[in-house]
Amino acid sequence: MGQVESSGEQEDAKGHALVSKTAKILVVGGGGTIGSSTALHLARRGYTDIRILDVFQIPSGNSAGNDLNKVAGSGRDGVWGQIGQASWEAWKNDPVFCPHCHPTGRIDVASGPDRKADELYAKYQAMLAEGRGDEFEWLDNEEEIVRRAPHLHGAHIQGWKGLWVRESGWVAARDALDSVGHECRRLGVKTAFGSAGTFKSLLLGTDGKTCTGVKATDDTEWPADLVVLAAGAWSPILVDLEGQCVSKCWVFAHIQLSTEEAQHFKGIPTMYHHELGFFIEPQASTGLLKLCNEFPGYTRMAKCHPFGLNRETVLSVPRSHAQHPNDTMPDEALDEIKRLVKICLPHLVGRPLINQSMCWCTDTPDANWLLCEHPRFPKLILATGDSGHSFNTLPVAGGEVVDMIEGKLSEERRQLWRWRPGYGDPKGTGRPGPAPKDLAHVLGWNHDSPR
Ligand SMILES: Cc1cc2nc3c(=O)[nH]c(=O)nc-3n(C[C@H](O)[C@H](O)[C@H](O)COP(=O)(O)OP(=O)(O)OC[C@H]3O[C@@H](n4cnc5c(N)ncnc54)[C@H](O)[C@@H]3O)c2cc1C
To answer: What InterPro entries does the entry give (predicted)?
Structure first.
């Protein structure tokens, strides 16, 4: 099996590379999803002096990608459809990723008949028009859904409709990140973790603006010709992004299945419901079934001082479970997960929700990446704005970053990923539905008292 290159050479690619292949490059957040992918693609394209900086070793305990599994696969249209397809090909064929890919298919469902079901049907029609009809099947009723997802027999899914997506399934997220870490090390990527790897500020050149490296929290100074900031939900609190990213958290939990129960779920398609949430085949070695609900997410508004802003400000500041394991979860988020179980897996009602955790993403108002050079700090590349749908892109996201560095992004993509303060949904969510609540205003979330 060959290595799958990124979206790579695009048709109307133009521009020049920002640095040479021997340049000193730092990837801040390289223990996470987009950062580790960036380090991997840089190394694969022949860059020789790459160093990852992160709070934790890959897979970083703070990474939104550091859990059992994630939904992956194609199924969208436009640029994100192209990225999804390229990612899925790499998940299936690239030796770094394919051991962690489970092409079980996915059902993408709505309670319908409603607007969401209509949207799914319109999507199905669009895929037919694109000649991709063999990848999708319309599921018009409960029987057709259960035929594709037999484990939903007995679930309360009367009236549901949706899509069967063949080129999809799930990926073992933490294992895949670990695999990228091994490959980076094999290719000579250097690392620094802990306080020496934790970003504190940028270093600037004599012009007072060109980025010349990073200062870590232990005051280590890391000089560089180019710095990539891929710090996920932490990006907007580390460097001033002028309000383009809002960080939010989501809650997930697990049910411990017995060996027999886990066997019953073996090979099930991923189930994604646009309001209730999703679940994935349990982990074979442990029988853990991960459940995640889908809602606007929560902010945690707090004072912070991003580099490049000359005053303190209030932004949504992530607080990771890895660093604060005694934090409790909002009651309403756990209730939503219980609702998912009650409707889809009624035989598991009442089972303890274990390994409850929060994971943090950062949304742009139009749900597109923020992938460009910072206009105030030349040689600082922003690779963030994951908008909650970027784990799927682990195999190719870094290729997109390197395309940007090498001036190879198509005009369309340069426009999508550009610096764009004030652009997009004014409620700043990039998602349908209501604006997110703040953790301070929901019951059950407590960061002071141990559980
Ligand atoms: C509950 C949940 C379920 C999800 N499910 C899916 C799914 O099914 N499919 C999918 O495609 N996506 C899913 N996502 C979204 C996906 O996980 C994220 O979009 C993606 O992982 C974000 O990648 P990132 O590289 O931007 O950030 P991360 O992977 O979070 O990486 C950020 C990195 O920055 C590091 N960092 C932070 N601060 C500093 C600092 N000061 N110095 C140095 N390093 C620092 C962190 O340690 C971390 O390693 C889900 C997200 C959540 C929350």
So the answer is: FAD-dep_OxRdtase, FAD/NAD-bd_sf, MTOX
